[in-house]
Amino acid sequence: MKNFFTVLGGMCILATQGYINLVNHRVKIKDDQDYMNYILVNHATIPDRTTWIEDHSKPNPYDYLKEDVLQQAPLKPDFFLMPCNTAHYWYDELAALSDVPFLNMMEIAVHKFVDDYPDEKNLGLIAAEGSIRDGLYVKYIKKVNKTPVLGGPEIQPMVNQLIYGDIKEKGKVDSELFHHILTLMHDKYGCKVVLLGCTELSLANEKAPDPDVSIELEEKIRNGVDPKEAVKKYMYY
């Protein structure tokens, strides 16, 4: 297969499924051959990312992700992407494993905020505890000269309940809790824009990580643009 990308998924099956559904639904098609070519690595047994970030004695997800990248790289996908936000803790190590371009979803999300809301100085952030602890989103937000707003101590326990207690454990979204969190971030902490820094939160918003980037890139590559030239726009280094 030519002109395809590889999705490193399985880290929250419902969220991975949501991302793939959006890719399929947003492509403009006339027939089946117009859909995107991709390989989904639905590696459901990857250990929880936040658990390892909080306790390094637990199984390390990097070993599983490394295996996936090394298995896929010889197939020569046009690029890798990884819907799980917290897994970007290992982004640099994973991107260094092959010469296949590896999209950094965190940086793409932050740059999209800058493009869409250039006059906003503050960016609210809610995410899994691992993503908050590793500080990557905060680093990327500060890198573009914006101010990350995490809210007060009451926010994270509610976010944890929504991600783990509801979506991961029960497979459902507590919409009332979700909107309560967003209302607090807006009304109490002054955030006009809130970045949903976890795939489960995107699922809660009936969205997954924006698939428009992967669609845009694959359409360019199908039309003859060199893959490495196509992805340059989204490689922020």
Structure characterization notes:
This protein has helices spanning 13-26, 49-54, 61-72, 91-95, 105-116, 129-134, 136-143, 155-170, 175-187, 199-204, 212-222, 227-231; strands at residues 4-9, 37-42, 80-81, 122-127, 147-149, 194-197. It has 237 residues and is mainly alpha-helical. The strands form two sheets. Strands 2-1-3 form a three-stranded parallel beta sheet, with helices on one face. A three-stranded parallel beta sheet has the order 5-4-6, sandwiched between helices. Helix 8 runs antiparallel to helix 9. The longest helix has 16 residues, at 155-170. It is globular. 38% of the residues are buried. The model has no long low-confidence stretch (mean pLDDT 90).
The main sheet comes to: 3 strands, parallel
Radius of gyration over C-alpha positions, nearest whole angstrom: 18 Å
Order of strands, main sheet, comes to 2-1-3
Strand content: 5-15%
Overall form: globular
In short:
Helix content is about 50%, strand content about 10%. With about 240 residues, the protein is mostly helical.
List keywords for this structure.
single chain, 237 residues, mainly alpha, three-stranded parallel β-sheet
Itemize the secondary structure elements and their pairings.
Elements: E1 4-9, H1 13-26, E2 37-42, H2 49-54, H3 61-72, E3 80-81, H4 91-95, H5 105-116, E4 122-127, H6 129-134, H7 136-143, E5 147-149, H8 155-170, H9 175-187, E6 194-197, H10 199-204, H11 212-222, H12 227-231
Parallel strand pairs: 1-2, 1-3, 4-5, 4-6
